Amino acid sequence: MEAAVNEAVDQLLRFGPLVMLAVTAAWLALATRRTSASIGSRAYGFGQSARQRLARLLFAGSVVGAVLALVAYATGATTPFLNPMTGEASIVRLAGLFLAMSGQALTLFAQDDMGRRWRVGVPEVAPDALVTTGLFGLSRNPVFLGMLAMAAGLAVAVPAPAMIACAGVFWIACEIQVRDEERFLQRSFGPAYLAYRSAVRRWI
How does residue 204 score in pLDDT terms, banded at 50, 70 and 90? Predict the structure, then answer.
């Protein structure tokens, strides 16, 4: 019985993180495509500044790196940089997986709260309204908060050096992007955004 439980836990930790990341990426890509169709223009588009190019590069690098690390782990590759370090208890890794699942749920629910105002990057034209209700009444960046929780949880669930590095890079990208978006929203919505920013925390 104990052997069967241990095997089930091992399989969950081996394949669960990869499936979770793939589902989240697919959902967000679909949401971006759906929003683009709804507004009649591209919902995806980072600005042309050096900071935006850097943010896009860091986001892409962290996600691709995490996918490679999770595929390597799921397929049993033996590359040290892509495989979990020994010594972390299964209960700790399962707690990381639960944190990642919670972050995934927060990301998807917060994206749904944005509806047709969902954007990826800093757009050329602001959405038609500032989203301040639902999860955005508790945090100014619940989507990023969910994704950061997911990145941290996956790094605990699969504590490979590559996963830890990717989580750190993703955090840096979020910090850059959030501050760029804040400046954009202040220019676009003026006093309304300033009032929102003073009432709701950046993170939580």
Answer: confident
Give residue 56's pLDDT.
95
Q: How confident is the model at residue 87 (pLDDT cuts 50, 70, 90)?
A: low
Let me know if residue 91 belongs to a domain: yes
> Nearest 5°: CA angle at 108, between 200 and 61?
95
Distance CA 109, CA 19 (A): 18
CA 133 – CA 90 distance, rounded (Å): 38
Residue spans of beta strands (DSSP E) within 25-87: none
Task: Determine the pLDDT at residue 126.
Answer: 86
* Within-domain flag for 122: no
Asked if residue 123 belongs to a domain, the reply is no
In angstroms, rounded to a whole number, what is the distance separating the alpha carbons of residues 170 and 9?
A: 27
Q: Is 144 domain-assigned?
A: yes
What torsion, rounded to 10 degrees, do the Cα atoms 84, 69, 50, 106 define? -80
Question: How many Cα neighbours within 13 Å face the side chain of 139?
Answer: 16
Residues 6+ apart with CB under 8 A from 49: 180
Query: How many domains, the chain?
Result: 1
Domain of 23, in residue numbers: 2-29+44-116+128-199
